[in-house]
Amino acid sequence: MKKITVLGAGRVGSAIAIDLSENFDVTSVDFNKENLKILTDKNIKTILANLSQKSEIDRVVKDADIVVSAVPGFMGFKTLKSVIENGKDVVDIAFFPENPFELENLAVLNKVTAVVDAGVAPGMGNIILGHHHSRMDVEKYECLVGGLPVIRTWPYEYKAVFSPIDVIEEYIRPARYVENGKLIVREALSDAELVEFKEIGTLESWNSDGLRTLINTMSDIPNMIEKTMRYPGTINYIKALRETGFFSYDFVDVDGVKIRPIDLTSKLLFPLWKLKEGEEDFTIMRIRISGTENGQDVEYQYDLFDKYDSKTDTISMARTTGYTCTSVVQLIADGKFNKKGICPPEYVAHDNHNLALIFGYQRERGVEYVVNKKFL
Question: What kind of architecture, by CATH, is found in domain 124-307?
Fold first, then answer.
């Protein structure tokens, strides 16, 4: 039985470890004893370690066949580098801001398959686009995605399963998209639109920097955009916080004490954004891919609407992110994806069968993508 080491035991990392433990010998690693105790109670091996230290990463991945990195984004790049230096195949959902291709030569040298951004978005959107890109001339790609609490609670009407700083990055990092073959850079939260969904009603979408690797790997596609969705009204309060400086990384002096506003803001927001036990969330995503296939103009639409699973007490964002990750781990373990180097998700589905395998894997766990094709 292959050994999998999961770095990070937050809500998503724990869901990954639990899912993988059905088929693999899994060890979960974190510095939080409470997170690990939950997994120990489920008979999953655990190690208490400080993953900000390279020596600790070296120690805990030593015996692994495959590693999953589910650490916060600010730790992601260094963690991935350490795993690659240990010669371990790795699937990463840290969504770090650095360019993963800076580690390409290192990964090739160490003969490592390193799949990055293997979540829902980025992640599944990339996988789906990669599948179609190898089979048709894609003219346009659009991805709208959001993860939200079912119950809207004042003042934020939002709950996060990731590090607060990672969420705030969506609100401050310039958004890049491609229009008519040109790279466009706009501020985050720009170009707001109201979008209707039958499952949930009206949501608000805006530009976010979600394309990531697609900008380079799919550079022949003339139109690509990803937008984040929240409940209507979110933009106004987030812009107010941003423009006031609450998201700044620059130190300010408060009565002789220097602090970064982003650290204080994260500290204050975390209790308000944290999903409480039993709170329900949902993930909604709509992907549209249009272009020419076999000489005909076509459009594919993929729709996802997933909710908290009360039977397993697994939140939707952990399911949709985590089961994308674990499906890729399964492909690597089965020898169905073994490309060496840095591999963004769009590489994974070049094989004719991998997208179907990923969909089937997630469908078995109740995560269902509905696809419709129409001729234009």
Answer: 2-Layer Sandwich (3.30)
Segment 215-234 mean pLDDT: 96
Report the pLDDT value the prediction gives residue 61, as an integer from 0 to 100: 97
- What are the tokens at 59? 């120690």
Domain spans of the chain, in order of start: 3-118+318-368, 124-307
Q: How many Å apart are CA 147 and CA 238, to the nearest integer? A: 16
Positive or negative: CA dihedral 235, 241, 245, 247: negative
Tell me: pLDDT of 286 over 80. yes
As a whole number, mean pLDDT of residues 79-83 equals 98
Q: Are strands 296-307 and 281-293 parallel, antiparallel or unpaired?
A: antiparallel
Q: Using one digit for the tens of pLDDT, what is the confidence trace for 94-147?
A: 999 999 999 999 999 999 999 999 999 999 999 999 999 999 999 999 999 999
What is the number of H-type helices and E-type strands within the chain?
12, 18
Report how far residue 234's alpha carbon sits from residue 250's, in angstroms, rounded to the nearest whole number: 24
Q: Is the pLDDT of residue 47 over 90?
A: yes
Structure tokens at 215: 């900008």
Q: How many CB atoms lie within 10 A of CB 294?
A: 7
CA–CA distances in Å: residue 219 to residues 59, 177, 216, 294: 39, 11, 5, 21
**Residue written as token pair 């800076």:** 102
CA–CA distance, 226 with 251 (Å, rounded to integer):
32
What pTM was estimated for this model as a whole? 0.94
Residue 5 neighbours by CB distance under 10 Å = 26
Question: What topology is assigned to 3-118+318-368 in CATH?
Answer: Rossmann fold (3.40.50)
Q: Where are the beta strands (DSSP E) in the chain?
A: 3-7, 25-30, 45-48, 66-69, 89-92, 113-115, 137-149, 175-179, 182-186, 193-197, 201-207, 223-230, 252-254, 257-259, 281-293, 296-307, 341-343, 369-375
CA pair distance 232, 336, nearest whole angstrom: 42
Kindly state the DSSP code that residue 101 receives in the 8-state scheme: G
The mean per-residue pLDDT over the stretch 222-251 comes to: 95
- DSSP letters, 219-239, are TT-SEEEEEEEESTTHHHHHH
